[in-house]
Structure formats: structure tokens, C-alpha cells
């Protein structure tokens, strides 16, 4: 069964959204395989978002991700990566439709509440990065 990595970002944790987000994944039919509250240091944030290193917003992105605790999760299910991205909604909350997590809880692309892996390969890479050998599962 496919797995995906989902992370409630610091704004989502601060705003008390962990429960709602977990509930949406459970109701959709995903199985929770791992969950932990943690503080990300800058090297981990930089590795996680390495593909954006050259983007003008990279510094802001790392500041944001390290600004408070995150909730890292592993969810399993059929087409887990694509189904999770559907629940999460478009990257820019302005374009995310109501009913999606970003459509309901976010206003700005720079603080969009939640992350979901964009491919099964990246999901496994991110699960190793955040859960290491204890990985979930
Ligand atoms: P994520 O990887 O967080 O799930 P995504 O795959 O939907 O997001 P990406 O294009 O990979 O979207 O962007 C990664 C993250 O970088 C976004 O979730 C957002 O937090 C941040 N980001 C993207 N574009 C901007 C921008 N123009 N300004 C500030 N932050 C941005």
C-alpha cells in the first residue's frame, strides 16, 4: 500500500488545526502509520525543501518552518500521495477551493498550514528524513 508524508506546519499547529487535519485524513479512509510533534532545525528544513534552494522565498520558507513545532505524519492508503494532495488543496490558498485544508484554513502561500509529498519517491525520502529508522511502519 502506498504511503505519504504529511506535515502540519507551524501556523497549523499554532492555530490548533492538528485534530481537524487528522480527522479529515481518517474520514477519507487513510490509515495513520506514524505521528510526532517536533521542532525542525534549519538543516532539516533546508534538506526537506532542497528543490527550492534557489528560489527567492527560500529563506522565508526555512524561517517559517523552523518558527515553531510541526506535526509530522505518515499516512497509508490507495493512491495515498494523490489523495492527500486532493485533501490539502492548491499550494496557493487563493486558488485552493473551500473544502480543502488550505481552502478552509489558509490565506497566504507563505503560510499554507500543511505539506504533502508530491510523489511516492519523495514520500519515502521524506519519511526517512523525518522518521529515520523508527519509520512508521
Ligand atoms: P508543500 O511542499 O509545502 O506541500 P507544494 O508542493 O504544494 O507545497 P511547492 O511549490 O513545493 O508547493 O512549494 C513548497 C512550499 O514553499 C509551499 O507550500 C509554500 O509554503 C512555500 N512557497 C511556495 N511558493 C511561495 C512563494 N511565492 N512565497 C512564499 N512561500 C512560497
From TrEMBL:
It catalyses: a 2'-deoxyribonucleoside 5'-diphosphate + ATP = a 2'-deoxyribonucleoside 5'-triphosphate + ADP; a ribonucleoside 5'-diphosphate + ATP = a ribonucleoside 5'-triphosphate + ADP. SUPFAM superfamilies: Nucleoside diphosphate kinase, NDK. Its main location: cytoplasm. It is an enzyme of class 2 (transferase). ATP binds at residues 9, 57, 85, 91, 102, 112. The keyword Kinase applies. Its EC number is 2.7.4.6. It comes from the Bacteria. The active site is at 115 (pros-phosphohistidine intermediate). Residues 1-137 form the Nucleoside diphosphate kinase-like domain. GO terms for molecular function: nucleoside diphosphate kinase activity. Its cofactor is Mg(2+). Keywords: ATP-binding, Cytoplasm, Kinase, Magnesium, Metal-binding, Nucleotide metabolism, Nucleotide-binding, Phosphoprotein, Transferase. The keyword Phosphoprotein applies. It is found in: Cytoplasm. NCBIfam families: PRK00668.1 (NF001908). PANTHER family: NUCLEOSIDE DIPHOSPHATE KINASE. Belongs to the NDK family. Major role in the synthesis of nucleoside triphosphates other than ATP. The ATP gamma phosphate is transferred to the NDP beta phosphate via a ping-pong mechanism, using a phosphorylated active-site intermediate. Homotetramer. This is Nucleoside diphosphate kinase. It comes from Paenibacillus xanthanilyticus. The lineage of its organism: Bacteria, Bacillati, Bacillota, Bacilli, Bacillales.
Amino acid at each position: 500500500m502506498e504511503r505519504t508524508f504529511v506535515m502540519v506546519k507551524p501556523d497549523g499547529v499554532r492555530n490548533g488545526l492538528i485534530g481537524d487535519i487528522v480527522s479529515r485524513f481518517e474520514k477519507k479512509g487513510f490509515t495513520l502509520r506514524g505521528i510526532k510533534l517536533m521542532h525542525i532545525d534549519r538543516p532539516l528544513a533546508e534538506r526537506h525543501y532542497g528543490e527550492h534552494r534557489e528560489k527567492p522565498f527560500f529563506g522565508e520558507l526555512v524561517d517559517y518552518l523552523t518558527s515553531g513545532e510541526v506535526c509530522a505524519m505518515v499516512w497509508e492508503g490507495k493512491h495515498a500521495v494523490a489523495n492527500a494532495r486532493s485533501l490539502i488543496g492548491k499550494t496557493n490558498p487563493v486558488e485552493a477551493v473551500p473544502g480543502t485544508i488550505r481552502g478552509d484554513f489558509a490565506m497566504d502561500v507563505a503560510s499554507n498550514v500543511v505539506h504533502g509529498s508530491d510523489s511516492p519517491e519523495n514520500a519515502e525520502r521524506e519519511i526517512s528524513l523525518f522518521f529515520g529508522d523508527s519509520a512508521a511502519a
